Amino acid sequence: MTELADLLGEMAGLAGLAMERATQALLQADLALAETVIGEHDKITDLSTQCEEKAFSLLALQAPVAGDLRSVVSGIQIVADIDRMGALALHVAKATRRRHPNHVLPEEVNGYFAEMGRIAVSLGAATKEILETRDPERAARLHQEDEAMDDLHRHLFTVLMDREWKHGVAAAVDVTLLGRFYERFADHAVEVGRRVIFLVTGKLPTDEDFRAMRERVDKLTVYPQDQ
Amino acid sequence: MTELADLLGEMAGLAGLAMERATQALLQADLALAETVIGEHDKITDLSTQCEEKAFSLLALQAPVAGDLRSVVSGIQIVADIDRMGALALHVAKATRRRHPNHVLPEEVNGYFAEMGRIAVSLGAATKEILETRDPERAARLHQEDEAMDDLHRHLFTVLMDREWKHGVAAAVDVTLLGRFYERFADHAVEVGRRVIFLVTGKLPTDEDFRAMRERVDKLTVYPQDQ
């Protein structure tokens, strides 16, 4: 059981690392770094298979019940989300390779992607942490970071749709897809958080629950500026 | 166990129907039909929850082994894919609503989306059929339809990237995202097919396996024109 949790945590760590490097490669048109992400993607896929096999053998050999059963079932669902996070980082790396030696992004939107990348990396690290600690309050905070990602994504679209956009359609298509990859990466992290909350509380939180939980967390948190 | 399979089949049927209607709404800027898809999406989400609960209670109460265990584990994975197919149909319907009374698509690309919609609907129906029959040869043929989808998607991008594209960046962004939704819908159908093949054969097929299997199927098939 611990082994499955460790494998999932390791996988989340690798997906986060892949997105960190893919973002850096994207922003700096760094082909070597993009190739590293692409070359190391198999590690995530292998871990994914290992997780599935581990979950299956736990069910087959131990027929777990109650909380343990919930852990294994959630594990099976979580592995699919982390696998997808890795695949989205791979897509970013491949876009960088496709346009090399050119930059994929017009300079105008670099700031958006630097920030979306920062949030994605933070979400990857949080996902790993949550899988290890099973802290439902931390899991609920993922939703907050996801909202920050959604905001950036929306702003990015207003930049794209602006009549002043002067980088052409091809760049707009790239920016649209890349923006989507970051947004989906965040969605999957939130989904992992929901699953962990389910694990601990036995209930899958809705968006409403997230909002309520966040308000509670916000009230509990002493912000640095309040001290 | 049969109940879980039935629920999954029903869910696949609804996801296929949603994509069929969403495509029609998209092509005809039919707001009422788009609203139907949006309004009925909850049915798919509800079935998704029912499937997860059913799978969990099967594991908890029956501690299935061997083939039955594999069925339940695959069911847990498959429900996530079908859920996503429904969500992608929902995205198409929402794009139609967002631009109404305008058409989302420039007329130039209508043909692509009509054809991608046709393939998506066929994939939805095939997914339902495969869940019911567990026919691995039929599941392998999903891959072929997915390749047809990928080809269309690639062509669509060459149209977008063409210097002659005269519909502006906003339309290009819509077309990019919509194209991606159809492509992902197909990917999820293929993933369900892979899971069913795993169920029957105990082995997850790779892309290589798919190709080999298809060649075998092609050899076995007597085409109408050969008769």
Please give a structural write-up:
The structure is a homodimer of 227-residue chains. By secondary structure, chain A is mainly alpha-helical. Chain A has a single domain, classed as Methane Monooxygenase Hydroxylase, Chain G, domain 1. Chain A contains 7 helices and no strands. The relative contact order of chain A is 0.14. Residues 217-227 of chain A have low confidence and may be disordered. At the A-B interface, helix 2, helix 3, helix 5 and helix 6 of A face helix 2, helix 3, helix 5 and helix 6 of B. Chains A, B: Its main location: cytoplasm. Chains A, B: Belongs to the PhoU family.
Structure summary:
The structure is a homodimer of 227-residue chains. By secondary structure, chain A is an all-alpha fold.
- What is the percent of helical residues of chain A? over 70%
By helix and strand content of chain A, what is the structural category?
mainly alpha
Shape of chain A: globular
Q: Could you name the CATH homologous superfamily of chain A? A: Phosphate transport system protein phou homolog 2, domain 2
- Describe the largest sheet of chain A: none
**Structural domain count of chain A:** 1
DSSP strand tally of chain A: 0
Tell me the CATH topology of chain A: Methane Monooxygenase Hydroxylase, Chain G, domain 1
* Greatest interface by residues involved: A-B, 26 and 26 residues
Under CATH at level 1, the class of chain A stands as Mainly Alpha
Oligomer designation? homodimer
Rg over C-alpha atoms of chain A, rounded to the nearest angstrom: 19 Å
Give the termini separation of chain A: 41 Å
Number of discrete helical segments of chain A: 7
What's the average pLDDT of chain A?
A: 91
Order of helices and strands of chain A: HHHHHHH
**Beta-strand percentage range of chain A:** under 5%
CATH architecture of chain A: Up-down Bundle
Low-confidence regions of chain A: 217-227
Family (chains A, B): Belongs to the PhoU family.
Keywords (chains A, B): Cytoplasm, Phosphate transport, Transport
Protein name (chains A, B): Phosphate-specific transport system accessory protein PhoU
Main location (chains A, B): cytoplasm
